[in-house]
Amino acid sequence: MFNDIGPLELVTIVVIAVLVFGPDKLPKMIQDVTRTIRKIREFSESAKQDIRSELGPEFKDFEFEDLNPKTFLRKQLENDELGLKEIRNGFDLKKEMADLTDAVHSPEVETSSSVPSSKTVDLTKKPGPLAPEERPPFDADAT
């Protein structure tokens, strides 16, 4: 429960507790806190047992720690039925992002061979007013 508390922090907590509660009341406070923690643990264990009994025998191996998303994902990723490790190892995000950044920041504008040269758009020029018979450009990604 308190695995991440170091010795210096523990000494600091004890000194603050002695200063706040005093040396005469401190043992009673520690007893009250430990009694409360025991009651909470007993209540938690009884609630877990009630839930397991209500779920039935098909959930006999159910663990409440599996409800934590990190634990659930860790268990699912260890069971590599879908080949996720191969996908993860074959995908280099840094390389993909560097390639994408280079493509975006490159000074040359590539035109597709399927687009006629009369319809080539200069991306550096601001669009002006349209002629009365001219339609505005259609952007499929924007709609």
UniProtKB/TrEMBL annotation:
Q: Which Pfam families match?
A: TatA_B_E
Q: Which residues cross the membrane?
A: 6-22
What are the recorded Gene Ontology BP terms?
protein transport by the Tat complex
Which residues fall in a compositionally biased region of kind Low complexity?
A: 109-120
Instruction: Name where it mostly resides.
Output: membrane
The GO cellular component terms are: TAT protein transport complex
Q: Where is the composition biased (Basic and acidic residues)?
A: 132-143
User: Where is it localised?
Assistant: Cell membrane; Membrane
Indicate yes or no for the key word Mitochondrion: no
Q: Does the keyword Kinase apply?
A: no
Q: How does it assemble?
A: The Tat system comprises two distinct complexes: a TatABC complex, containing multiple copies of TatA, TatB and TatC subunits, and a separate TatA complex, containing only TatA subunits. Substrates initially bind to the TatABC complex, which probably triggers association of the separate TatA complex to form the active translocon.
Q: Belongs to which family?
A: Belongs to the TatB family.
Tell me, in a sentence or two, what this protein's role is. Answer: Part of the twin-arginine translocation (Tat) system that transports large folded proteins containing a characteristic twin-arginine motif in their signal peptide across membranes. Together with TatC, TatB is part of a receptor directly interacting with Tat signal peptides. TatB may form an oligomeric binding site that transiently accommodates folded Tat precursor proteins before their translocation.
Q: What protein am I looking at? A: Sec-independent protein translocase protein TatB
Biological classification of the source: Bacteria, Bacillati, Actinomycetota, Actinomycetes, Kitasatosporales
